[in-house]
Amino acid sequence: MIADAVETRAGGITSPRGFRAAGVSAGIKAHGGLDLAVIASDTPCSAAAVFTLNKAQAAPVVVSREHLARSGGVARAIVVNSGCANACTGDEGLQAARDMASETARLLGCREEQVLVASTGVIGVALPIAKIRAALPSAASALAADQGAEAARAIMTTDPFPKEAAAAVHLGKATIAIGGMAKGSGMIEPMMATMLGFLTTDANVPPALLDRALRAAVDETFNAITVDGECSTNDCVMILANGASGLTVDDSNYDAFLQALKSVCLKLALGIVRGGEGATKLVTVTVTGAASADDARRAAKAIANSPLVKTAIHGADPNWGRLIAVAGRAGVAFDLSRASVAIGTTVLFRDGRPYDDAAPQAAAYLKGPDVAVSVDLGAGRAAATVWTCDLSAEYVRINADYRT
Amino acid sequence: MIADAVETRAGGITSPRGFRAAGVSAGIKAHGGLDLAVIASDTPCSAAAVFTLNKAQAAPVVVSREHLARSGGVARAIVVNSGCANACTGDEGLQAARDMASETARLLGCREEQVLVASTGVIGVALPIAKIRAALPSAASALAADQGAEAARAIMTTDPFPKEAAAAVHLGKATIAIGGMAKGSGMIEPMMATMLGFLTTDANVPPALLDRALRAAVDETFNAITVDGECSTNDCVMILANGASGLTVDDSNYDAFLQALKSVCLKLALGIVRGGEGATKLVTVTVTGAASADDARRAAKAIANSPLVKTAIHGADPNWGRLIAVAGRAGVAFDLSRASVAIGTTVLFRDGRPYDDAAPQAAAYLKGPDVAVSVDLGAGRAAATVWTCDLSAEYVRINADYRT
Fold first, then answer.
1. With contacts defined as CB-CB under 8 Å, which chain B residues touch A334?
2. Among A308, A58, A131, which residue's Cα sits nearest to residue B276?
3. A3-274 and A282-400, same CATH topology
4. Which residues from chain A sit within 8 angstroms of residue B312, using beta carbons?
5. Taking every pair of C-alpha atoms in chain B, what is the biggest distance, in angstroms?
């Protein structure tokens, strides 16, 4: 199975066969709009999920983790609300998350533990479970194969645009589809930095293999992006595999499946970065010459989260000294005499000395919407890529506004 | 020796007996102004210094470290320029830093390794050593006990104000003085985030004890502040102790000396935060209930560097959910059910539940120029305090401007 087998397609969460979705308004968001999404499979699915490493885990994270364990990795549906994170809400929050799942299960005719749940919105506010209960029947009625775009809109908080992706991959005689939707951190009301991602596929993938594929795909996509270095209480990525294509993923075609899954995840992840708070540029940060893969990722994340680097890029300033300074403080092996820095393809520092005559060329390049910076640490052969956005005054304006 | 023995005084680097200073214009800064400072003692001093942990160490850091080693911790003077960091400048940069020290030594009649050197300004630009050589004789002539304020101004890049501090401490029959000056990160030209601190005392302190006191004082002051989480290529804090008071610091009075030294360092450190880029508020972040001192410091630093926390405080938004979320992702022991958050003295989250009715009170408090936030991790008994400033749109404006 080779790379060419993957085809990017229009579509989203309902592109794979046998999935339906809905997005409705439950009145959770004060200003109205879609705020409740359901993704459902016609048949039971293998399910896997990765959750935030934040120790202040939101109620839906706790409950979804429990449900996956109780069901043995089998699920029928995912129910998601925006407008309230149901985080830091104590026992009542846990009960509300359970109620949200069990009401969905009742409507779909499956077991409670076969429904996963996610929330995004303000931390520390009680989930309006009565409104959600009241709206779930209409969401269940609205479930349809052409409602993926509505679901993608219903999980947005103040994301500037919905994020959907789909891909198909030919595996032998069959073609399987992978679909996804995500929300990122386009905050106007503060404390809504949650990143949620949902994926579906009509391949048949045993839960353990699905979990392995999801972790591998997320590591190089959702886990390789950063807007502001924050990790929310609610972050999660979930995948359902219903087998409707008739094709089973096993060791013989795992690589092709993974590649297609990564392509969907990457498209969604880059959409989150492009829609980052106040973002005007997508920035690809590549670190090479690292002593280890861990060093490479750590240095790339440090650069991608540096406010000095992000503001310089915002101002199209080819400020290579900041890239060197961050690499030097990132806690990784680093050799200044062997290190180098490039902005786009323009080398600005190498062999211990600057090439500042190239600065105007680099400055012109940085005015574009998609820019790349790279640092070679001069300490080994490992590499990593991370994606981020620039830091603008708009970010501050968005996040300094009072919640009310 | 008790706390009351320390008296904060007006003054600075020349407050201790036997120290003279000068600040002159060498023409390093393109727009003119003082840019070359010398601090000299009439007699040889014990000397100690702490340097940046950045692996991209600037030439003056390398040379000062060498000089301290060669001299066995004895120094007569410190020479400092602003307007150029002499970082990432290769072998020529090292030679320039050595020339700056040796020319100062020649003028003062001491050995080259008895002069420490520091630089702050743009990274990757060659130090204009000819201009510095030409200006050093006038700096040496200008050395005087009343020129500390000139020296403090000469090490500024675009700091909004000079930072000086002095304290006296009565030890038995004698009174010793400690003086200091610092520059922080008030950047208009980017890449000038260097933090430099210089301290003098007329106590007689053996080099090893001076080094111990300096490290202890810096750890709780300069190392406990953050403006934007960046650690420059040039950061350093240096101290000279000339013994002119006739009093020797030993185990019997070390604690009182350390306390006085900390008071001077803290005043300078808080000055750096108040003068941080775009800062409008001094923010004291206290973490309690940590499993270890390291955890406490780590969580406090994570909070103090969080752009979401810093923008919320800028907007006087009592956004306690962000404080919890950062504590939860800080990689430290954390128990949500025992954790609590306060803004000023107003508790907003405790026992797993929010107290949002107190939010207006906290919001009013946050409008002040000096604010405190505290998080109890619910995981132990260790505590730490870190100081930072808020993150304003002005920070972005300052740092997004192109260097030219």
1. 55-56
2. A308
3. no
4. 190, 399-400
5. 68
Instruction: Map tokens 């794979």 to a residue.
Output: A16
CB-nearest partner of B402 from A317, A393, A395: A317
Give the nearest partner residue to A399 out of B122, B312, B326, using CB atoms. B312
Three-state DSSP class for residue A394 = helix
User: Where do the DSSP E strands lie in A87-159?
Assistant: 115-120
Which residues numbered 74-93 in A keep a CB inside 8 Å of some CB on B? 85, 87-91
Which residues, 6 or more positions from B223, have their beta carbon under 8 angstroms from its beta carbon? none
Are the C-beta atoms of residues B348 and A151 closer than 8 Å to each other?
A: no
Tokens of A26: 């439950």
The answer to whether residue B51 neighbours chain A at the CB level (below 8 Å) is no
Pick from B34, B49, B38: nearest CA to B140: B38
Query: What's the CA gap between B220 and B232, in Å, rounded?
Result: 19
Q: Cβ of B191 and A321 within 8 Å?
A: yes
- Domain boundaries in chain A? 3-274, 282-400
Chain A residues with CB under 8 Å of B339 CB are 56
ipTM score for this prediction: 0.77
State how far the Cα of A377 lies from the Cα of A328, in Å rounded to an integer.
9
Residue given tokens 């306690």 in the structure block: B320
Summarised one tens digit per residue, pLDDT across range A281-309 is 999 999 999 999 999 999 999 999 888 89
What average pLDDT does the structure give for chain B?
90
Beta carbons within 8 Å of B251's beta carbon, 6+ residues apart: none
Q: Map residue B327 onto helix, strand or coil.
A: helix
Q: Does B385 touch chain A (CB under 8 A)?
A: no
Q: How far apart are the first and last CA of chain A?
A: 53
For chain A, say whether B149 makes contact (Cβ under 8 Å): no
Top CATH class, A282-400 = alpha beta
Which tokens go with B136?
């050093």
Could you give the C-alpha distances from A74 to A176, A265, B41, in angstroms and in order?
A: 20, 21, 76
Helix (H) or strand (E) holding B340: strand B340-343
CB count, 10 Å around CB of B103? 21
- CA A283 to each of CA A392, B122, B264: distance values in angstroms, whole numbers, following the listed order: 13, 24, 42
Nearest-angstrom CA–CA distance, A148 and A139: 12
CATH superfamily placement of domain B3-274: L-amino peptidase D-ALA esterase/amidase (3.60.70.12)
* Distance (Å) from the alpha carbon of A25 to chain B's nearest alpha carbon: 25
User: Would you put residue B81 in left (φ > 0), alpha (ψ -120 to 50) or beta?
Assistant: beta
Give the residue among B363, B270, B276 at the shortest CA–CA distance from B313: B363
* pLDDT (mean) for B105-129: 94
Percentage of the residues of chain A whose pLDDT score is greater than 90:
70
Tally of residues, chain B: 404
Q: Please answer yes or no on whether B315 and A401 come within 8 Å at the CB atom.
A: yes
- Pairing state of beta strands A225-226 and A236-241? unpaired
Tens digits of per-residue pLDDT, B268-286?
988 888 888 888 999 999 9
Q: What amino acid positions of A are annotated as catalytic residues? A: 194
Residue A292 confidence (pLDDT): 97
Taking the model in full, what pTM does it have?
0.82
Q: Tokens 């062999």 label which residue?
A: A351
Tokens standing for residue B360:
């207006």
- pLDDT score at B194: 62
Residues of B in contact with A402 (CB under 8 A): 315-317, 363
Q: Quick check: A308 and B123 CB within 8 A?
A: no
How many helices (H) and strands (E) in chain B? 11, 16
Q: Which residue type is seen at A188? A: I
How many Cβ pairs within 8 Å bridge chains A and B? 217
> Which residue among B54, B325, B336 places its CB closest to the CB of A329?
B54
* B248 assigned to active site: no
Q: Give the pLDDT confidence score for residue A187 in this predicted structure.
A: 40
